Amino acid sequence: MSKLKIFTKGFIKENAVFALFLGLCPTLGTTTSAINGFAMGLATTFVLVMSNIVVSMVKNFIPDKVRIPAFIVIIATFVTIVELTMQAFVPDLFEVLGLFIPLIVVNCIILGRAEAFASKNNVLDSSIDGLGMGLGFAMALTILGAIREMLGSGAIFGFKFITGDGMLAFVLAPGAFIVLGYLIAITQLINKGDKKTVLEVLSGVWKIARSFLKFLNFSK
Amino acid sequence: MDYVIIIIGAIFVNNVVLAKFLGICPFIGVSKKVETAIGMTGAVTFVMVIATIVTYLIQKYVLVKFGIEYMQTITFILVIASLVQLVEIILKKVSPALFQALGIFLPLITTNCAVLGVAILAVGNKYDLLKSTVFAIATAVGFGLALIIFSGLREQMDLANIPKGMKGVPIAFVVAGILALAFMGFTGLA
């Protein structure tokens, strides 16, 4: 596999969230706004890249039977580093993401990549794989966060573009599930190469968005 | 009264799956049939309660005592992972029937973030041992409630005429969203 292919496969084709359904808890729990989603994505990317590098370096020394606990310890170490660093330098963000920072350790993407890729490939390929997968995850969280923020509070990356409130349900729990459901549907259609249905779904989404904007007196 | 608030809060108001977003992977993964959902609930309850008690004791008598609270994440995940292994071995010897029923779900639980999440939350909320245990049981009941309702809905959905693009996982998420909307009605109870 070429280096470029290793890097890009994490964005759409093997996107951790939209295609493989991994790491769904932080995906739903932290994407109340685009910034939060992006920050969570970057924290996960850091852990993913570092753990992939270390796992691929020590893969020949770890006996096969204890490899999973060993991987978990490596991952937990980097999660603790992220946790303490964020607590020290961005306490506000740490407060918002809260429980989901220590929970990076049980994010199935990270253990999954360590087991499926880093334990079989060299250091360079593993770090590229970690970076691609991590940025794909960050992209998914940012998109989900941006959509929820737009619908839920009428803002994007913190800049408000409507007066008044949005549909609060989209910032709360139900919106997370519903938006993610539609995003997964679109990704599945793209991966199947079904262009006609993709256009139909996208035009449907556009119609919903337009009527929503009309409802908020934005399109005048 | 404290206990009532903890129980109602953990089951309905702050439902672990539908409000706190913990344990989404098994929620989506093993909810195709009511039977497997019940099996998973049993396994999660078992591990969650034991894990919360053990991690509480470790937090109090090891981490705090020696001033190494920053090792919390590493210690807790290792304890949970080995606990799951231990439960599996003991169950195999003591009750083969129960092992048969829960067997395939047990390894999955290590990466169930609800277990680690509840352990960390119980410590973070400064509960004592009894409150932590009650909190763990109530959370597990909340998890089971959401999972079993959801699997019932998904069994019905197999018969429904769903648009092509939404079949499978996407429609499951939309239904979960509507279920979460229903659970929002409990806000204010506790």
Distance between the termini of chain A: 51 Å
Output mean pLDDT of chain A: 86
| Number of β-strand runs of chain A | 2
Number of helices of chain B: 9
What is the ordering of alpha helices and beta strands of chain B? HHHHHHHHH
Total strands of chain B: 0
Low-confidence stretches of chain A: none
Low-confidence stretches of chain B: none
Which class do the helix and strand fractions of chain B yield? mainly alpha
- Radius of gyration of chain B, whole Å: 17 Å
Number of helices of chain A: 9
Strand percentage of chain B lies at under 5%
Average pLDDT metric of chain B: 86
Which descriptor suits the 3D outline of chain B? globular
What radius of gyration of chain A results from the CA coordinates? 19 Å
Please summarize the sheet with the most strands of chain A. Answer: 2 strands, antiparallel
Number of domains of chain A: 1
- The figure for the number of domains of chain B is 1
User: Which word captures the global form of chain A?
Assistant: globular
Termini separation of chain B (Å)? 11 Å
Descriptive tags:
heterodimer, A: 220 residues, mainly alpha, two-stranded antiparallel sheet, 9 helices, B: 190 residues
